[in-house]
């Protein structure tokens, strides 16, 4: 680039790299210096000569930033822009002033600004600027980067750096704007800056590339604005020239013409220069960086080219530039695709630009439509909005197929996508309607609203989408764009109530049902003011405006439907589907309107229609809707309650009378009863059951009649299944309502006895119904049994309700077995086992699966809450793999909850389930199992899954896993081989399954389990190597892996090892000598914890002394002579430790007696260690137990440094899990590879 030689020569001798601040400043002249960033009306900057001889604090020497002492004001461009305390206009004006005085120094300041904005700590010196090429300068600055951090200002988090980005962009924009009339044409500033930014943008350093690209793109945007202004000035000058030239010769001013020609020529030259600058940036930077490896850089390029095309469409809105946006629509990063769509939205918003976008639309329309299904929801939303803009500009641009791809998105679970699709649907469906013609039609038909045809179109769309159960989603999608239409309940009601007119198409039955469903959904949306279930993260707090709109809408719909609903019910009372939907409307009423508006007559009309509906229908959904409506209208907070209560009581009286008489007739005729008798009982019982669900009908004593029906059915065996199912359900409701009365008041003993008698008799009936021939009856009885056992369990007395103890029922073993048998017979079955026809559709299969899942969940709750014994879960757990797709989540949750309640019993249940599968396999295949078969592999895979559920915290599951291994070992050796001891036990192959759990054992526990295994093994077994003994070999290997060194590298529950380890700390007094427990008793501490941390691992050692024994069910009792405190029980793991300790201590005492002299010598070498460091034993004497209890009282944390003494013991091998050992051996043997 060109530089001014005079400036260079004038400053070269006065500036050098070694000049200090003191050499450039005059200590006697500290005033008058204008600091960067101050307003422009302050004192001007000093001249270059003044700079050389004096100046204020904070100047720069050779481009080196200087500060005014600690915490001084910002003095570099980077600091000024980063702090953002000064107006950018003032900052730029200061820089321009300095540029006019010495453009090299000012330009150096600007270069360092870009370098520092990139996060580089280096500074470009004046000599570097004058003598080095850009590439050399950039290479030098690259070396100054902080390699420890990858952050730089544009990527740093926080509001300060977010503001910096804005200030950085604003600075460049203001700089060009202020220089646009002269300085940018001096062939020095812009050439230098563009050359620098081009070099930086090509750097391999991301910070340089990112920062320079952003600067270049903002620079280009500013230049485009300058070019646009020049174009406008050219047009104005041309018009003035034409106007002056067209004047008559006498009035024409030739001088003015010459000035205009000269001005036009100057403007054209400037325009050419600006175009050259823009071409340099576009070809040198944009073309390379729009496909940069970093998504943020690509996004910057696309965002700015969109600005150029919108700002100066005549120059940039053509296919030469649009192609870059089109190509980038396929970018792999969502943020880049998002920038493309937003850039295009800005273009398609302007209708005048559509002709220039026609070719682009045809070329990339398919890609934009496909992006409506983008995996990034934000991108999909913007794609739909862009499609909507294209539709608004030209309806012919989109085909029917394109529109259909967007239509179905109104049912998306992601609400922003659905709302955007709703906006598109609104524009497409409702863009062609003729308001005048529709208003004339409405007047001719006497309608109050012209939206009739639009509602018909909406109904047709809903029907054609064939997603009838998603009406709420459709309404929610259209709520923001078509709210006026969706709230036009008057027009909906008129369409439903009007009589057909000749020559006009009427709504079909399906269309009426759909319109009613949509209408109810709009009412719910308006009254609740939140999206339906499945959309959004939950109910949000409404703003004051939204709350006011909600109240207004609720009042509006209440006032309208109070009068319209009785008429709608009257017209459609014979249609169960329509009536069930219409009866949902009253739950959204503001019921105060009935009394405030004196509309009791409309209430009476509504109650009359509901009564007619109850008498006409026996469908469950209709009757439940009627029952719920009565319940809402009977709320005590409203004054209409008495009126509704009277109507309800009259209705129940009549139904109950009919039911009682029908039951008497049915029981008298018994087997001779005809269909009419059965129908009379069933119809009245269905109505009473539906009402009993929401209303307390205990004063009508329905339980007695239902119980008689059930007993008769059990005794005679001929009761219709529907009557039995309804009688069971009605009796269940009756019991629950009686319980509610008792819990809310102060019950007498007689009330408790009476309810207990009722519950007991009903449970017996349900238990008998489990053997009913009809599956619906059995399923109903099972569900009610599970519910009642849950309600009347031990949890009934919690919360200060001890007085209800008499109502607690615990199922006996017979009932538990029957419930479990039912689950196995009706839940864990294959599809082929069900009584289903080949024509049964997928919906029915899903419904059947849903029912089976409910049955399993009901039984699982009994296990989780300790109502049914946990071992019953073994029959469920064993099906985990086989039925994983159907019930995997339920079984996994049951396993998790049972483990939380009792880890050990849960582990015993898991191993029991595996034992059951193994026994079943033995029965099928015989004693010689094929261990490579899929069945054996399936059991091993199930064991592996069970092992994974124990998690990573081995300390928490220590006792449970050890108990699991104990039970597994006992099962494997439970039976001897009838052919002799030299043959493997029949269950020996189970050890291969058990080995899946070995990884969950702590290293020190593996030795204990291995010792327990050896008790069952004879000497010959350990020497056998035949294939039939492979399970034993593999299981032993799994225990020996990582377990051999456990006694050397960790401190377990034995107190001897703890005290010796404590004493190994030099200069520390053994803690167990400081206190003694008198009387030989031990505190009732359930868990003692010792944390021991050394250089290799930290172990949490638990010694479980469970005084209650709750967690030790099934564990063998400890012999009396082995434990000095008989009232306390010990875990199995603790027992094994204690037993091993006796043997080890016997051998140890013998060794001490033999080698006393040697021990004295070794003790001297071991720095006062009184005992061997690595004893893994349990205390067996009372005094040692007291010592252990004292140590555990404070849960001490003991740091054990690596001891060199263990290296001096010949009998101890190096511990390869010890980092200290690795380092030591590396120095000794030349590296870790030596061992």
From TrEMBL:
GO terms for cellular component: chromatin; chromosome, centromeric region; cohesin complex; nucleus. Residues 286-371 form the SCD domain. GO terms for molecular function: chromatin binding. Residues 250-280 form a coiled coil. Residues 1-74, 1044-1072 are annotated as: Disordered. Residues 32-46, 1063-1072 have a biased composition (Basic residues). It comes from the Eukaryota. Residues 1050-1062 have a biased composition (Low complexity). It is found in: Nucleus; Chromosome; Chromosome, Centromere. GO terms for biological process: cell division; chromosome segregation; sister chromatid cohesion. Keywords: Cell cycle, Cell division, Chromosome, Chromosome partition, Coiled coil, Nucleus. PANTHER family: COHESIN SUBUNIT SA-1, STROMAL ANTIGEN. Belongs to the SCC3 family. Part of the cohesin complex which is composed of a heterodimer between a SMC1 protein (SMC1A or SMC1B) and SMC3, which are attached via their hinge domain, and RAD21 which link them at their heads, and one STAG protein. Component of cohesin complex, a complex required for the cohesion of sister chromatids after DNA replication. The cohesin complex apparently forms a large proteinaceous ring within which sister chromatids can be trapped. At anaphase, the complex is cleaved and dissociates from chromatin, allowing sister chromatids to segregate. This is Cohesin subunit SA. The gene is LOC110517300.
């Amino acid at each position: 680039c060109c530089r001014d030689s005079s400036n260079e020569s004038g400053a070269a001798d006065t500036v050098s790299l070694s000049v200090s601040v003191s050499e450039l400043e005059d200590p006697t002249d500290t005033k008058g210096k204008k600091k960067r960033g101050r307003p422009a009306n302050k004192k001007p900057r000093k001249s270059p000569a003044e700079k050389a001889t004096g100046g204020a604090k904070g100047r720069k020497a050779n481009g080196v930033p200087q500060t005014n002492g600690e915490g001084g004001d910002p003095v570099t461009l980077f600091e000024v822009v980063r702090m953002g305390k000064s107006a950018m206009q003032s900052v730029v004006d200061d820089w321009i002033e300095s540029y006019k005085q010495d453009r090299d120094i000012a330009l150096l300041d600007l270069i360092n600004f870009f370098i520092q904005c990139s996060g580089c700590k280096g500074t470009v010196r004046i000599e570097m600027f004058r003598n080095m090429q850009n590439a050399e300068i950039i290479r030098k600055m690259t070396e100054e980067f902080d390699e420890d951090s990858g952050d730089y200002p544009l990527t740093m988090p926080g509001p300060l750096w977010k503001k910096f980005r804005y200030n950085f962009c604003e600075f460049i924009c203001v700089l060009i704007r202020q220089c646009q009339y002269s300085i940018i044409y001096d062939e020095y500033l812009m050439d230098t800056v563009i050359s620098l930014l081009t070099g930086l943008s090509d750097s391999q350093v991301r910070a340089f590339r990112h920062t320079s690209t952003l600067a270049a793109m903002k620079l280009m945007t500013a230049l485009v604005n300058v070019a646009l202004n020049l174009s406008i000035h050219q047009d104005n000058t041309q018009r003035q020239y034409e106007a002056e030239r067209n004047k008559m010769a006498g009035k024409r001013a030739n001088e003015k013409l010459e000035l205009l020609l000269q001005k036009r020529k100057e403007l054209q030259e400037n325009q050419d220069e600006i175009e050259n600058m823009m071409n340099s940036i576009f070809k040198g930077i944009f073309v390379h960086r729009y496909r940069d490896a970093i998504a943020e850089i690509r996004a910057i390029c696309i965002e700015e080219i969109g600005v150029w095309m919108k700002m100066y469409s005549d120059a940039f809105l053509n296919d030469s530039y649009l192609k870059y946006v089109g190509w980038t629509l396929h970018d792999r990063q969502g943020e880049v695709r998002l920038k493309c769509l937003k850039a295009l939205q800005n273009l398609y918003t302007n209708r005048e630009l559509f002709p220039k976008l026609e070719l682009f639309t045809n070329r990339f329309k398919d890609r934009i439509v496909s992006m409506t299904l983008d995996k990034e929801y934000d991108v999909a939303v913007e794609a739909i909005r862009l499609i909507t803009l294209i539709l608004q500009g030209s309806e012919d641009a989109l085909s029917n197929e394109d529109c259909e791809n967007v239509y179905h998105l109104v049912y998306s679970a992601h609400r922003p996508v659905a709302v955007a699709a709703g906006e598109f649907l609104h524009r497409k469906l409702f863009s062609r309607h003729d308001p005048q013609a529709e208003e004339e039609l409405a007047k001719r038909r006497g309608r109050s609203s012209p939206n009739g045809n639009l509602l018909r179109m909406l109904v047709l769309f809903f029907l054609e989408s064939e997603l009838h159960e998603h009406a709420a989603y459709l309404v929610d999608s259209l709520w923001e764009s078509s709210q006026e239409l969706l709230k036009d309940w008057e027009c909906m009601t008129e369409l439903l109530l009007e009589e057909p007119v000749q020559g006009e198409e009427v709504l079909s039955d399906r269309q009426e049902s759909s319109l009613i469903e949509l209408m109810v959904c709009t009412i719910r949306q308006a009254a609740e003011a939140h999206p339906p279930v499945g959309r959004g993260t939950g109910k949000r707090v409404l703003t004051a405006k939204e709350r006011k709109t909600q109240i207004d809408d609720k009042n509006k719909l209440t006032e309208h439907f109070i009068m319209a609903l009785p008429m709608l019910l009257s017209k459609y009372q014979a249609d169960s589907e329509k009536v069930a939907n219409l009866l949902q409307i009253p739950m959204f009423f503001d019921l105060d309107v009935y009394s405030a508006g004196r509309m009791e007559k409309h209430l009476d009309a509504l109650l009359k229609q509901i009564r007619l509906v109850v008498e006409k229908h026996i469908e469950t959904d209709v009757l439940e809707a009627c029952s719920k409506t009565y319940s809402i209208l009977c709320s005590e907070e409203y004054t209409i309650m008495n009126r509704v209560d009277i109507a309800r009581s009259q209705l129940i009286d009549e139904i109950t009378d009919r039911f009682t008489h029908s039951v008497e007739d049915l029981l008298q005729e018994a087997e001779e009863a005809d269909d009419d008798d059965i129908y009379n009982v069933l119809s009245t019982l269905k109505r009473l059951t539906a009402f009993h669900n929401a209303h307390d009908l205990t004063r009508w004593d329905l339980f007695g009649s239902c119980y008689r029906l059930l007993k008769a059915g059990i005794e005679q065996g001929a009761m219709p299944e529907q009557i039995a199912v309804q009688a069971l359900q009605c009796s269940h409701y009756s019991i629950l309502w009686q319980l509610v009365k008792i819990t809310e008041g102060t019950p007498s003993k007689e009330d408790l006895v009476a309810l207990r008698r009722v519950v007991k008799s009903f449970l017996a009936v349900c238990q008998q119904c489990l053997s009913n021939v009809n599956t619906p009856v059995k399923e109903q009885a099972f569900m009610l049994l599970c519910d009642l056992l849950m309600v009347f369990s031990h949890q009934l007395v919690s919360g200060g309700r001890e007085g209800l103890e008499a109502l607690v029922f615990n199922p006996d073993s017979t009932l538990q077995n029957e419930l479990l048998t039912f689950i196995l017979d009706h839940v864990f079955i294959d599809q082929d086992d069900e009584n289903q026809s080949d024509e049964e559709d997928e919906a029915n299969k899903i419904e059947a699966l849903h029912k089976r899942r409910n049955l399993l969940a009901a039984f699982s709750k009994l296990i989780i809450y300790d109502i049914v014994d946990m071992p019953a879960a073994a029959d469920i757990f064993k099906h985990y793999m086989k039925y994983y797709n159907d019930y995997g989540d339920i079984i996994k949750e049951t396993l998790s909850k049972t483990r939380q309640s009792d880890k050990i019993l849960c582990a015993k249940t898991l191993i029991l389930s595996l034992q059951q599968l193994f026994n079943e396999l033995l029965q099928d295949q015989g004693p010689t199992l094929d261990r490579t078969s899929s069945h054996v592999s399936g059991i091993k895979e199930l064991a592996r899954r069970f092992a994974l559920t124990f998690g990573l915290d081995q300390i928490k599951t220590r006792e449970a896993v050890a108990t699991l291994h104990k039970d597994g070992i006992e099962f494997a050796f439970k039976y001897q081989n009838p052919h002799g001891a030299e043959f493997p036990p029949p269950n020996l192959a189970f050890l291969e399954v058990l080995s899946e759990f070995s990884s969950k054992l702590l290293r020190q526990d593996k030795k204990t389990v291995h010792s327990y295994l050896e008790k069952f093994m004879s000497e010959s077994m350990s020497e056998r190597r035949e294939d039939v003994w492979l399970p034993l070999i593999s299981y032993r290997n799994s225990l020996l892996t990582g377990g051999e060194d456990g006694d050397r590298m960790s401190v377990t529950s034995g107190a001897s090892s703890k005290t010796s380890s404590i004493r190994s700390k030099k200069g520390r007094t053994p803690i167990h000598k400081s206190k003694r427990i008198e009387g030989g008793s031990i505190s009732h501490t359930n868990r003692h914890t010792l944390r021991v941390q050394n250089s290799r691992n930290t172990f949490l050692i638990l010694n479980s002394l469970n005084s209650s024994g709750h967690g030790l069910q099934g564990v063998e009792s400890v012999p009396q002579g082995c434990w000095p405190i008989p009232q306390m029980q010990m875990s199995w793991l603790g027992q094994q430790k204690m037993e091993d300790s006796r043997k080890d201590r016997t051998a140890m005492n013998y060794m001490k007696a033999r080698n006393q002299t040697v021990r004295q010598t070794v003790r001297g070498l071991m720095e006062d260690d009184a005992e061997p460091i690595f004893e893994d034993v349990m205390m067996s004497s009372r005094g040692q137990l007291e010592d252990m209890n004292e140590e555990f009282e404070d849960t001490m944390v003991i740091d054990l440094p690596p001891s060199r003494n263990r290296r001096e013991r010949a009998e101890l091998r190096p511990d390869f899990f010890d980092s200290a050992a690795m380092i030591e051996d590396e120095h000794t043997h030349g590296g870790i590879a030596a061992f």
